[in-house]
Amino acid sequence: MRGMRSRVLLLVLVCAAIAALELSGLPDRLLPAPPPPAVTAPEPAPAAPAPPPTRTSAVELRRGDNLVSALGRGGVGPRVGHEIAQALRQGGADLRRLRPRDTLEVTWNLEGEPVELRYAASPWLGYVAFATGDGWEVRRSQTRPDVRVEAVGGEVQRSLFEAVEQLGESAQLVLEMVEIFSSDFDFTADTRAGDRFRLLVEKRYAGDTFVDYRRVLVAQYVSDGRVLTGVGFEGGGRFGYYDPEGRSLKKSFLKSPLEFTRITSGFTYRRPHPILGGVRPHLAIDYGAPTGTPVRAVADGVVAGAGWNGGNGIQVHLRHRAGYETQYNHLSRLAPGVRPGARVRQRQVIGYVGSTGLSTGPHLDYRVAHRGRFVNPLSEKFIPGEPVPAAERGQFLRLARERVRRLEDAAPL
C-alpha cells in the first residue's frame, strides 16, 4: 500500500514538470496579459497672477507748485485735487509749508481713480487722505523724535569742513562750532592742519534714521597747544555757551566779519601801497573773498554812514558801545535796510564783499577804532559777555564737569 502512494506522488510531480515546460514555450500572445500601469491625472496649469487691486505713484513738488497743481501733474483732476486739499486743511495740515522736493504718494484703484494720498510734512508728522463714500477723510500720524547724545571727534587735514564730512557728519556741525568759538578763535585765519576737535551733540532720529542735530552740549577745539572748551547751559532764562569756569564765550565783538575766508593783509604801520605807491600805514585787516560774500556786523551798533566814501568805495561805518567803531570798505553793495541811523545786531549781514574804490581785487578792508584811534582787531581785548548767574553757578560747574568728562571718555584726542 505504501509503495502505491509513492508511485502516485511521483506521477503527479512528473506531470507538473511537463506542463511547466510546455507553458514556457508558448508565444507571448498566449500568456496572460500583465495588469495595465496606473494612470496619473495631469497637474493643472498654474493660474495667472491676479492683477494688484491698486497701484501707487509719486509726485515730487517743483518750485511754484501748490498741492492741486502738483497732483494735477500726477494725473489727479482739479476737482478731486481741491477736495483732497480741503480735507487736508481740515485735518490740520499747513499746505503753505509745502516745499520743492516734497513728495506726494497717490494710490489708484483698478478704475484709475485716486483713493489715497500720503504726505509727510516732516519726519515726525504725516497725513493720509483716503476716499470714502462721503468724500475724503484724513488721518494724522505723529511720532516723537528719538534724541540721542553722541560724541563726534576728528582732526583737520586740509579744512574743517572736509574733516567733519569725512566723519559722515553734516557741515551744520562746522557752523555750530564756529558760532560757539566765534569770539575767541578766527577760523578764517587760524585753522591749520593738525587741529583737533570733538563735540558732544544731541542727534534726532526717526526710528533708526538720522534726521538732524539739536544742541551741541560740549565743544572742544585744540589748535597749536591751545584748548578751547564751550559748555552749553541754559542760565538766566536763555541758552548760551560758557568756558568750564562759567565765563561767557560770547563777547561783544566777533573775531571776524566774514564766516570763512583768508587774511591777505594784516594790521601794520608800514605797508607798500599797491595802488598809491610808497610805504603807508595799513590800519586794517584785509580778508580775501569772492565778490558777493556776506559781511556781518561784528557787534550791535548804529549805522553812522553807509554809501560811497572816496577811496574806500562803498563803505559801512558802525558805532558801538564803549567807544568802539568799525568800518567795512570796498563793498559791492549794501544790505537792505542799512542806512544812517539804523540799528544793527551782531551777525547781521550789512553788505557784500566787492572791489569798489582803491582796490586791486575783491576783498574786505575791515577796521576797528577805539576812542578815535585805530586798533588791531586781532589783538584787541573786547568786553566779555555776561557769566553764568551766581545763583546757578554751582549747578553749572557740576554739569560742566560731568559733560566734559563724558566727552573725553567717548572721544579721546
Q: In summary, what is this structure?
A:
With 413 residues, the chain is of the alpha+beta class. It contains 6 helices and 22 strands.
What does this structure look like?
The chain is an alpha+beta fold and 413 residues long. It contains six helices and 22 strands. The strands form four sheets. Strands 11, 14, 15, 16, 17, 18, 19, 20, 21 and 22 form a ten-stranded antiparallel β-sheet that branches. Helix 2 (67-73) crosses helix 3. The chain is globular and about 95 Å long. The termini are far apart. Mean pLDDT is 85; it is low at 23-31, 266-273 and 275-281.
Kindly provide the name of the CATH class of the largest domain: Mainly Beta
Low-pLDDT runs: 23-31, 266-273, 275-281
Give me the number of helical elements: 6
**CATH fold name of the largest domain:** Glucose Permease (Domain IIA)
- Average predicted local confidence, pLDDT: 85
Q: Estimate the global geometry from the Cα principal axes.
A: globular
Task: Please render the helix and strand layout as text.
Elements: H1 2-24, E1 54-60, H2 67-73, H3 78-90, E2 103-109, E3 114-122, E4 125-132, E5 135-142, E6 146-155, H4 160-166, H5 172-180, E7 196-206, E8 209-223, E9 226-235, E10 238-242, E11 262-265, E12 268-272, E13 279-282, E14 285-288, E15 294-296, E16 301-308, E17 314-319, E18 324-334, E19 343-344, E20 349-353, E21 363-370, E22 373-375, H6 393-410
Antiparallel strand pairs: 1-2, 2-3, 3-4, 4-5, 6-7, 7-8, 8-9, 9-10, 11-14, 12-13, 14-21, 15-20, 16-17, 16-19, 17-18, 18-20, 18-21, 21-22
Helix pairs in contact: 2-3
